[in-house]
Model the fold of this input.
Amino acid sequence: MTRFFVEPEQMRPEFLVLTGENAQHAKVLRLKQGEQVLVCDGQGRECLCTVSDLSPGQVSLVVNSRQDSQAEAAVPVSVYMAYAKGDKLEHVIQKATELGAYEIAAFPSARCVSRPDEKSLKKKLERWQKIAASAAQQSGRGRIPQVIALGSYREALHRAAQADLAILFYENERSATLRMALEAGEYRSVSLLTGPEGGLEEQEVEQAVEAGMRVCTLGKRILRCETAPLCALSAVMYHTGEF
Done:
């Protein structure tokens, strides 16, 4: 079923109107009067609607029912990824959204080669959020993950550590595995933090432990910076019953 995202304040009790890009998309899809569509507020609520009228630049809908989205993960998982070169972060944002991530946060660390300035970061954030929105629509989600840019590594640690289960992945860890962390007890939220191309420095790992994060390995092989967060996210989703 065709899915549209609108701002929460546009979710009216009985009638909805699609305009702008949504109306243009409806035109491309050649929606007809009487067809049913899903309209989501991007925060987990969705409406089943019927097309009642089509006019240039506008599609009118009648709301049939409302419900919480059934496509959202029971356990919210936040992905924290250090800035990476090229479009690697864009790839992670798209795929993490498809896999069900609650939010994606980018941050600088000591070995980051990519360090966007304030001006370029504003443009990047707009693009990253659009990528998340497009991936959420394509994958049938009812919530668009927020993409956040944090100012420092310490800020990332402080924020990630607020989750019930907060994990940092380090290639030099040998004994503590992700499976051990996931089976250690109950939790209602998870955060996963990974480093840049050159990995995290030992001092940064020590800071993470001090902040209350668990340090884990992702196995015997060293994964690329764009592979590690998606691998960890997939494992958490499997363990929590999403697959």
